[in-house]
Amino acid sequence: MIRVLANEIGAKPYRNGDNPLPVGSIILKEIFDGQSCDDYGELGLWSVMRKETAGFDTDDGDWHWQDVLPDRSVENDMKARCIGCHRRDECVARDYMCTEL
Questions:
Q1: What is the pTM assigned to this prediction?
Q2: Which end of the chain has less Cβ packing within 10 Å, N or C?
């Protein structure tokens, strides 16, 4: 189960499918181990993308990627795990977004 949240800067553009999202947009996925909307289960981690200024990471849409574990420790190397899906054409067309609000 995944719940997607966005900050005030990015929420409306995210829902509209804008490409690119505004600099400062933060998209956060709460990732749970449950199997249905009725049973979220336990929180596994938060995956976070923050839109940076042009030139930050031109190969991957100028996004900063990180995971925050339940103990609040941060993993900054998660991009390698996620970017394969986020580079799909349908995701790139939504500024590397693969899920919808």
A1: 0.86
A2: C
